[in-house]
């Protein structure tokens, strides 16, 4: 047996609905949420439309976005009990059902992720240090030799793939060597 829940209707509210896809919030049965109109600034309005993923969307004065799509720091709580919740200037909806009402983790830049060696102190290298550095094999030539070997390996693999695809192609040339095969496939 299914349980059915009845929502208690809010008194004195208009029938405002959220325009975000997959959001069924309504002021009719929810007095905790606040509903915000689209901004008048064209650039900010365009950002809202992109954020809520609505193409060819006609915005009227009665179109609203509910407060559950904004970060807590973007919503200013009212000073008095009868006051209204307002959005901070430049707030853009970011919490949706498709991102599980959470923000993605902040990506660090490449420079913050990469472990870099600590800067060495400025000093002139000793003669012994210069001799030790020059005594080993040149790393650039070793890398160039490895690169050449890998290119040759790739070339050989490509030739093998091409020969296999030529053998596996379906056509009369596969059966031209045998009269028995031609009679079998042509009946």
What does this protein structure show overall?
The protein folds into two domains: 1-104, no CATH class; 137-186. Helix content is 33%, strand content 5%. It is built from five helices and four strands, in the order E-H-E-E-E-H-H-H-H. The longest helix is centred in the last third of the chain and has 30 residues, at 139-168. The mean pLDDT is 76.
In short:
The protein has helices at 42-51, 110-113, 127-135, 139-168, 179-186, and strands at 35-37, 64-66, 75-76, 86-87. By secondary structure, it is mainly alpha-helical.
Question: Helices and strands in order, then pairings?
Answer:
Layout (H helix, E strand, L loop, with lengths): L34 E3 L4 H10 L12 E3 L8 E2 L9 E2 L22 H4 L13 H9 L3 H30 L10 H8 L1
Antiparallel strand pairs: 1-2, 3-4
Strand arrangement within the widest β-sheet reads: 1-2
Structural class: mainly alpha
The coarse overall form would be elongated
Taking Cα atoms only, what radius of gyration do you get, to the nearest Å? 34 Å
Roughly how many Å apart are the termini?
A: 65 Å
What's the helical proportion of residues? 25-40%
What is the residue-mean pLDDT, rounded to a whole number? 76
Overall structural domain count: 2
Unreliable segments (pLDDT under 50, ≥5 consecutive)? none
């Amino acid at each position: 047996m299914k349980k059915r829940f009845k929502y208690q209707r809010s008194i004195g509210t208009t029938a405002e609905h959220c325009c975000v896809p997959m959001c069924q919030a309504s002021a009719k049965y929810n007095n905790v949420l606040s509903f915000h109109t689209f901004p008048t600034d064209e650039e900010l309005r365009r950002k809202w439309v992109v954020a809520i993923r609505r193409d060819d969307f006609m915005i009227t004065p009665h179109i609203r976005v509910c407060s559950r799509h904004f970060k807590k720091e973007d919503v200013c709580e009212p000073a008095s009990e009868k006051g209204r919740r307002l959005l901070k200037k430049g707030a853009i909806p970011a919490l949706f059902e498709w991102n599980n009402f959470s923000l993605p983790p902040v990506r660090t830049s490449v420079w913050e992720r990469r472990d870099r060696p600590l800067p060495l102190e400025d000093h002139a290298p000793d003669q012994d240090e210069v001799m030790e550095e020059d005594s080993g094999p040149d790393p650039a030539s070793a890398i160039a030799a490895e690169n050449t070997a890998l290119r040759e390996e790739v070339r050989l693999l490509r030739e093998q793939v091409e020969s296999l695809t030529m053998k596996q192609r379906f056509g009369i040339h596969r059966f031209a060597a045998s009269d028995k095969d031609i009679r079998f496939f042509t009946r």
